[in-house]
């Protein structure tokens, strides 16, 4: 089979540090599923953390399953074979529990496709004691309703805090082996704080779970080393969780609050063990805003001193405007990518967003970066923001015209659940397209010849993402119909098919308007029962 597919390395096992356990009585079989291809899923730190936690349990076998690319799906369906795990090549249907990581709404059809390919009934109500329990967690689970018909239980919050409590219940009920074990298991899971079971008690108040002590939290120092290059093919160490900023549009800063810091001592220990156990020659410092780590210069200097003589390069994903300085001779900070995210063109609109960045600071630090050796400065903007005017759009052009070499990324604003703007609306396609054209025209006429490249994120894809992010349980029928029509890998721009989503919305009798419109302060929100407060 693998000689007929592109990149067979996506589907083989025995990578360095992978764990394989032989089947035996009492072994809980856990399929850790990522609804995107191997190169994306293997780059995700959360998957590595859960893989390590679960396989450290002697009576749990955790195996990885990723979404197949189209060629592999064709092979599986033509041969009437089921989607299988990497470690044991075990079909999904033979696991006790299937756990999905929901990182991006556009992957929802791939969740259904993986279940179908694995021989598992799509809808939770169609499963019985002979089928695996299907759970899901991740950022998208903070509005679980669009997938509630397909998922047995959702983890709300940070899964490493709760996963072993789930495992204990599954082990206990598995050993009982009496009729209707599934229903009893679901009732027990619903008692765990941070777990939402749609079939047991629809829309109760569910409070998220968080790891309070990051320094003593589990961190994998023997991560699986892939045979093929993945997106983030290096050691990644989470140095803090949460964000020091309070941008009103940002969902991540709310669902990952409060700010938690990992100590330099612990980071150094993790780095030493990880390098010894993997052979990687690059180490990246991860967080929502790594440049804002309170001891970043001390940490960077310590890592450089210890690991550079060993041929290991230390890197940061990016630096924000506020945390970018010359940094003396600290090479780690000089090598970091530069992601300046003004979000809006005018200081007036940035004030509304609670984005405290002045034009002067952006221009001066961009110039400093270019003088210091960076070839380009990346600038991120949003359009369709609450309170935005044409003057704000023109201000983007004016700001960019003052920076010699930059790459612009422009995305439509999506009012995400649990952000401060969750009750705001999203502008229509015609308005967004007009704004994109206005920006493109302004940049062509005023910034020509300054090495500026602009990437506009698809307004159509953003519209679908917003419907899925803000949807209720009725949106699940749209996801089902999109999957039925053969839509796969909708998170990939080249595979996205807006026509399929429009057609499925119409067939399901769903009007997108209410999902995209502004909500009043007294209106119920589909995700309103999910509480962030401890």
Which secondary structure elements does this structure contain, and how are they paired or packed?
Layout: E1 28-34, H1 38-41, H2 45-55, E2 60-66, H3 70-78, E3 97-101, H4 108-117, E4 133-137, E5 153-155, H5 163-176, H6 181-189, E6 195-196, E7 206-207, E8 235-238, E9 240-241, H7 252-255, E10 260-261, H8 264-278, E11 282-286, H9 296-307, E12 313-315, H10 331-335, E13 339-343, H11 347-353, H12 359-371, E14 377-383, H13 390-400, E15 406-412, H14 429-446, E16 452-456, H15 459-469, H16 475-484, H17 498-507, H18 513-516, E17 530-531
Parallel strand pairs: 1-2, 1-3, 3-4, 4-5, 7-17, 8-11, 11-12, 13-14, 14-15, 15-16
Antiparallel strand pairs: 5-6, 9-10
Helix pairs in contact: 4-16, 5-6, 8-9, 13-14, 16-17
Supply database-style keywords.
33% helix, Rossmann fold, 4-stranded parallel β-sheet, alpha/beta, 14% strand, 6-stranded mixed β-sheet, Transcription Regulator spoIIAA, 18 helices, 534 residues, 17 strands
């Amino acid at each position: 089979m693998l000689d007929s597919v592109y990149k067979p390395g996506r589907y083989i096992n025995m990578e360095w540090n992978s764990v394989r356990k032989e089947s035996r009585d009492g072994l809980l079989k856990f399929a850790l599923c990522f609804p995107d291809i191997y190169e994306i899923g293997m780059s995700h730190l959360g998957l590595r953390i859960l893989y390590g936690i679960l396989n450290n349990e002697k009576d749990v076998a955790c195996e990885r399953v990723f979404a197949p690319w189209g060629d592999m799906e064709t092979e599986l369906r033509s041969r009437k074979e089921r989607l299988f795990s990497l470690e044991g090549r075990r079909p999904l249907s033979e696991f006790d529990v299937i756990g999905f990581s929901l990182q991006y709404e556009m992957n929802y059809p791939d969740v259904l496709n993986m279940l179908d390919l694995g021989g598992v009934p799509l809808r939770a109500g169609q499963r019985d004691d002979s089928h695996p329990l299907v759970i899901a967690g991740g950022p998208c689970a903070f509005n679980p309703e669009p997938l509630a018909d397909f998922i047995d239980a959702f983890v709300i919050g940070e899964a490493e805090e709760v996963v072993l409590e789930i495992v204990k219940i599954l082990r206990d009920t598995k050993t009982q082996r009496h009729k209707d074990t599934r229903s009893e298991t679901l009732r027990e899971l619903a008692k765990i704080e941070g777990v939402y079971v749609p079939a047991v008690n629809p829309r109760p108040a569910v409070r998220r779970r968080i790891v309070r002590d990051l320094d003593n939290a589990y961190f994998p120092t023997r991560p699986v080393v892939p045979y093929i290059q993945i997106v983030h093919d290096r050691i990644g160490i989470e140095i803090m969780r949460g964000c020091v900023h309070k941008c009103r549009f940002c969902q991540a800063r709310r669902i990952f609050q409060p700010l938690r810091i990992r100590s330099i001592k612990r980071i150094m220990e993790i780095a030493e063990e990880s390098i010894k156990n993997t052979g990687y020659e690059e180490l990246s410092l991860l967080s929502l805003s790594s440049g804002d780590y309170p001891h970043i210069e001390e940490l960077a200097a310590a890592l450089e001193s210890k690991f550079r003589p060993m041929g290991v390069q230390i890197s940061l994903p990016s630096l924000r405007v506020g945390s970018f300085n010359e940094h003396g001779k600290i090479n780690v900070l000089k090598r970091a990518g530069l992601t300046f995210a003004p979000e809006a063109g005018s200081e007036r609109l940035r004030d509304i967003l609670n984005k405290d960045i002045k034009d002067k600071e952006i221009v001066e630090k961009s110039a400093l970066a270019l003088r210091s050796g960076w070839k380009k400065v990346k600038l991120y903007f949003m359009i369709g923001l609450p309170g935005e005017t044409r003057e704000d759009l023109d201000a983007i052009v004016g700001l960019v015209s003052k920076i010699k070499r930059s790459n612009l990324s422009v995305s439509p604003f999506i009012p995400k659940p649990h952000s401060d703007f969750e009750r705001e609306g999203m502008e229509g396609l015609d308005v967004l397209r007009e704004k994109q054209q206005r920006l493109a025209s302004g940049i062509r006429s005023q910034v020509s010849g300054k090495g500026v490249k602009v990437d506009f994120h698809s307004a159509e894809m953003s519209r679908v993402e917003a419907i899925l992010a803000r949807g209720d349980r009725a949106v699940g029928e749209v996801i089902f119909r999109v999957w039925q029509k053969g839509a796969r890998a909708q998170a990939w721009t080249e595979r996205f098919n807006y026509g399929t989503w429009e057609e499925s919305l119409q067939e399901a009798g769903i009007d997108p308007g209410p999902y995209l419109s502004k909500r009043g302060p007294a209106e119920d929100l589909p995700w309103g029962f999910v509480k962030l407060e401890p």
